[in-house]
């Protein structure tokens, strides 16, 4: 009983997720959450804020809310991008959980440092940090976390950004001598298995879709195109060109942008691997 549960849990936390937001969306989210935290501080005046008096009071309070959020979000996004590259352009659920836990601690810690040095002008001490985390930082998390999720999903779906490294050149080689194709990752749309060959579908600068046959299996192409997603035993896609996923667990289809026909998806394929919403077919 225990082993199946552990295997199920391990499978859940190691499942692939899309690397959705880039620098722009990350900066927007960090800045927005900082502004919201500042608005709460000024309007509701929690934690004794009403008693704080100092020159440039509003500007100081704004800095204590906005700067820690923006700095922590940008630093952790830089770290996330490095991990994403080191893992072969893959991002997993445990990466997301570790990253967001660290982000929360970073925001609280930077806010604490700002408050003790620029607001209260006292020396740092671990006892003060623990007290700040328990009584000031963690109580705000249940309020800010849903706002973060809403903004992250909205920006990721409505205003997506290319994952790290998508403008890099990709070279795939076939089994025939001298058989190779080089193209930007963002030009790759999808690939289909055709007996002993695979058809590569690429989008040119003019937006036109062209296909090229290469003697290789989809597994070989998947290994040579980091960031691609295997949605079916006969189909490999670029998440950047996916418009929507339709159907249900028994029969799903992938609708690609600018491609007339839908592509098949395996019954066991998890749509969470793609940065789009499930839509009824």
Summarize the structure.
The chain has 281 residues and is an alpha+beta fold. Helices cover 46% and strands 20% of the residues. Helix 2 (23-44) runs antiparallel to helix 6 and helix 4 (93-119) packs across helix 5 (126-137).
Net shape: elongated
The tally of beta strands, per DSSP, is: 13
How much beta, percentage-wise? 15-25%
Order of helices and strands: HEHHEHHHEEEEEHEEEEEE
Mean pLDDT score: 86
Cα radius of gyration in angstroms: 23 Å
The chain-level structural class is alpha+beta
Cross-sheet strand order for the largest sheet: 7-6-5-9-8
Outline the low-pLDDT stretches: none
Q: Summarize the amount of helix as a percent range.
A: 40-55%
Straight-line N-to-C gap: 37 Å
Major beta-sheet overview:
5 strands, antiparallel
Question: How would you describe this protein?
Answer:
The chain is built from seven helices and 13 strands. 46% of the residues lie in helices and 20% in strands. The radius of gyration is 23 Å and the shape is elongated. It has helices at 2-13, 23-44, 57-86, 93-119, 126-137, 141-158, 218-224; strands at residues 16-17, 91-92, 169-173, 180-184, 188-194, 197-203, 209-214, 229-232, 235-237, 242-247, 252-256, 263-265, 278-279. Strands 7-6-5-9-8 form a five-stranded antiparallel sheet, with helices on one face. The protein has a four-stranded mixed sheet with strand order 12-11-10-13, with no helix packed on it. The chain has two domains: 2-158, no CATH class; 169-279, OB fold (Dihydrolipoamide Acetyltransferase, E2P) (Beta Barrel), CATH 2.40.50. It is α+β, with helices and mostly antiparallel strands and 281 residues long.
């Amino acid at each position: 009983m225990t082993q199946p549960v552990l295997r199920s849990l391990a499978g859940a936390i190691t499942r692939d997720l899309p690397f959705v937001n880039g620098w722009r969306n990350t900066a927007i989210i960090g800045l927005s959450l900082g502004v919201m935290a500042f608005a709460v501080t000024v309007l509701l005046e929690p934690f004794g804020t009403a008693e704080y008096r100092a020159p440039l009071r509003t500007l100081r309070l704004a800095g204590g809310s906005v700067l820690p959020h923006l700095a922590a979000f940008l630093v952790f996004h830089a770290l996330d991008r490095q991990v994403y590259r080191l893992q072969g352009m893959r991002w997993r659920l445990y990466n997301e959980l570790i990253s967001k836990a660290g982000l929360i601690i970073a925001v609280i810690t930077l806010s604490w440092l700002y408050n003790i040095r620029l607001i209260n002008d006292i020396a740092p001490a671990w006892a003060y940090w623990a007290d700040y985390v328990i009584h000031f930082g963690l109580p705000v998390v249940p309020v800010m976390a849903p706002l973060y999720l809403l903004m992250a999903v909205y920006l990721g779906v409505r205003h997506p950004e290319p994952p790290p490294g998508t403008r890099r050149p990709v070279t795939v080689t076939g089994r025939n001598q001298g058989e190779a194709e080089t193209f930007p990752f963002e030009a790759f749309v999808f690939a289909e298995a055709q007996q002993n060959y695979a058809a590569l579908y690429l989008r040119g600068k003019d937006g036109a879709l062209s296909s090229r046959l290469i003697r290789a299996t989809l597994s070989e192409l998947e290994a040579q195109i980091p960031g691609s997603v295997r949605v079916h035993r006969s189909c490999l896609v670029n998440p950047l060109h996916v418009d929507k996923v339709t159907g249900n667990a028994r029969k799903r289809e992938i609708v690609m942008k600018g491609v007339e026909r839908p592509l098949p998806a395996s019954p066991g394929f998890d749509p969470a691997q793609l940065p789009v919403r499930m839509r009824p077919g």
